[in-house]
Amino acid sequence: MARLLGPDGRRVGLALLLLAACVLPFLLSSYRTFQLTSALTYAIALVGLNILTGWNGQISLGHGAFYAIGAYVAAILMDRFGVPYWATIPVAGFVCLGAGYLFGLPALRLEGLYLALATFALALATPQLLKWKHLEEWTGGVQGIVILKPDAPFGLPLDQDQWLYFFTLAITVLMFWLARNLLAGRIGRALVAIREQPTAAEAMGVDIAFYKSMTFGVSAMFTGVAGALGAIVIQFVAPDSFTLFLSITLLVGIVVGGLASLSGAIWGALFIQFIPNVADHISKAAPWAIYGLFLIACMYLMPTGVAGLLRAAAARLDRAPPGP
């Protein structure tokens, strides 16, 4: 069992999971494929927020703002300047990297609930700024921006939804790989040290100000990439799509999926994408009450998130005595 759950077993499991993900769009309807594509964009955003909150301990209630910035950068570049959709992804990431870093600098003086309130204000202000008349020429004001869904290139036998799914899946794999490499080494250890014992980390030579501000920037970059992909997938951006509720939803996703866990981002994304639909099917009259019950049940049954529950189950299997 230990061999099965070891590194080789995990690699085989990831390969099988990726193979299954590649087969799904050929088995599902266009709408379900669209839903899975949206879940992948959320997964990228959750990785970004988890780097900030799960690994570094900085609470953010405003990551919906960076999601909005990434979405609008992609939409404006495509609509106003005719930039190819694939080229807008890195641009949105770099813009959000700068925005997150700049926001992280003054936020260095804030911790805990005070930082949460500052990011809360950012989430509240962003939709209003997008409606501002002086930016309306670029943002489209309350009407937003409509963009076209791209076709599959090179004559590939894929419809638009299938192509966007594979395009988003490829970027998701890339972003998860970048996050894993970032967190598996010295930087990841420094982030955890700052989260657990900032005074001891500083005494050991960790530049807390640099790491905190750059973590905010990198976290925003991941979320901006997700926002750009979300805009391309949905084909529309508007200020009211990026309210405070989006920021809270992202926070719910990392808690349900599991803090400080890359795999938890996948589970959290599936939760925030599909559970509202399940709740709506159960009760048309009070879907959010059902959603709240699901959330309470998850926190009661899985206090460390889905990823934590799976780790505990794997550890128990690993300790189990071999059969006869």
Task: Tell me what the structure shows.
The protein has 324 residues and is mostly helical. The protein has a domain at 31-242. The chain is built from 14 helices and 2 strands; from the N terminus they run H-H-H-H-H-H-E-H-H-H-H-E-H-H-H-H. A two-stranded antiparallel ribbon has the order 1-2. The protein is globular. The mean pLDDT is 92.
Put the structure in a nutshell.
This protein has helices at 7-27, 30-55, 63-81, 85-104, 112-131, 136-139, 160-183, 186-196, 198-203, 208-234, 244-257, 262-282, 287-301, 305-319; strands spanning 145-146, 236-237.
Describe how the helices and strands are arranged.
Elements (H helix, E strand, L loop, with lengths): L6 H21 L2 H26 L7 H19 L3 H20 L7 H20 L4 H4 L5 E2 L13 H24 L2 H11 L1 H6 L4 H27 L1 E2 L6 H14 L4 H21 L4 H15 L3 H15 L5
Antiparallel strand pairs: 1-2
Helix pairs in contact: 1-7, 2-7, 2-10, 2-11, 2-12, 3-4, 3-5, 3-10, 4-10, 7-10, 8-10, 11-12, 11-14, 12-13, 12-14
What is the count of β-strands? 2
Judged by helices, strands and strand pairing, the structural class is mainly alpha
Count of helical regions: 14
Uncertain parts: none
Q: How much is the radius of gyration in Å?
A: 20 Å
Question: Overall mean pLDDT score?
Answer: 92
Shape: globular
Helix content: over 70%
Sequence of secondary-structure elements: HHHHHHEHHHHEHHHH
Q: Order of strands across the widest beta sheet?
A: 1-2
Task: Outline the biggest β-sheet.
Answer: 2 strands, antiparallel
Task: Report strand %.
Answer: under 5%
Span between N and C termini? 14 Å
